[in-house]
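Deviation from plan, reported transparently: adenosine-5'-diphosphate complex.
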Amino acid sequence: MNIAIQQHYDNLQSGFLKSPRQLLVGGRWVDARSGATFPVYNPANASVIAHVADAGPDDVDLAVKAARHAFEDGPWSRMSPADRAKLLWRLGDAIEAHAEELALIETLDNGKPIKVALALDIASSAERFRYYAGWATKMNGELCPPAAHDGGKFHAFTTRQPVGVVGLITPWNFPLLMAVSKLAPALAAGCTTILKPAEQTPLSSLRLGELMQEVGFPDGVVNILTGFGQTGAAIVEHPGVDKISFTGSTDVGRAIVKASTGNMKRVTLELGGKSPVIVFPDADMNVAVEGVARGIFANTGQVCQAGSRLFAHEKVFDQLIEGIAAKAGKLKIGPGIEFDTEMGPVVSQEQLDRVAGYLTAGLEAGAKAVIGGTKMKRDGYFVEPTIFTSSTTDMAVWREEIFGPVLCATSFSDADLDHIAAQANDTEYGLAAYVYTRDLSVAHKIAKKIKAGSIRINGGMVDSNVPFGGFKQSGWGRENGREGAEAFTEIKSVIISL
Ligand code: ADP
Ligand code: MG
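Because the crystal trials were delayed, the predicted structure below was used instead.
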């Protein structure tokens, strides 16, 4: 820990982390009505770092009332888009001004390397608020000239209005960034919100709530309820909530769809993935090795779009696997708080057991671990980066989302793109796909054939202005870009008989 981080750590210990963190409801920090709290753990050493309130249905009800009031009657409902934009921009600045503190919270809570938290999670969170500040003033409708009616007699146009009170339910892999990726477009569109961060990692969302108050968001615009799946379920079932935006597992996504039918909530879902990586023999091997390794080991593999099924041409298979294994072997694994750490622990005991269970199942089914294959013998939730070869497409490690640093690899020999794409598409998911080739024609053809929401050729990124989301069981709808903001609106058609 360097001196600045040590100072933030001491401040957190004597302040933010000392007393149980409360819920943000209608602009006030309050205990859960039941008084219940639950502990939050540091994955690097399994110690309890904080306690937070456990929101129940009563708290959900109060938060919905506060959000409804802010949406219908409060200053938010009268605020101009330009003033909303200003608030969003200021919040981006506030995140940047508190970057080290927020990164430290994220590292203590989630386990990720602090330098990654700073450069990725916190920097992107600040940028995303600024990006969506721009959209607040650009939520245009359009003119719709009648097709089968006399345009001289009818004037028709659309407007986009905020969908209303929205429930935002987030996962634990990028705690702040996931919350921000929903809050920013929802607020740009003019909605009011109830945020339910993951029970494993609630702290950065709570700190964000304080910053939102400081920069001047009106009471009730953002309510924050910490709690478990039951809290999320109470939000999803509540008749006063107009829309749910959820990121998490496909199983919970399915439950949310079922539970939201009461008032026919709008639902956006970012779910799981088992994304294919296809390496053609002409690919730049350095680029491929680097990209494939990063694609599965970054964030300890806890990434919904992780490239977890590798298809490499037989001519380059050995070279590629050797290269990726060498990278995995050199990764500096340790507590995220140490500045040279490249891979931290997984988020929880439950996640460690889950990943370790897959490793055992893979080995028992006959997969061969080129590197890794077990959890690490040390305190905290550490698991070895693993590459399985000889894994077949019927194995659980090949088919199911592991959400850990586990790559399954196989080779192909033919040049038939339809056949290669069919193998890549042989999954219930469709979030992302990665292709390594220098052949532009192959790249375009395979991009068209793969059923996934994002195709990344020779590397790639996630960007505020590029839509992100899944085909098939990877979700409904898109986040980021114009689509991300429009997902928080209703279209209204206005027809005037002249
Ligand atoms: P994981 O299994 O990786 O923890 P989940 O999909 O279970 O991922 O969790 C993602 C988010 O969904 C968390 O905030 C969690 O509390 C919440 N959640 C879990 N179950 C439900 C549910 N039935 N309804 C609404 N939210 C839920
Ligand atoms: Mg779960």
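Residues 273 and 414 are 26 Å apart (CA to CA). We consider this an acceptable substitute for the interim report.
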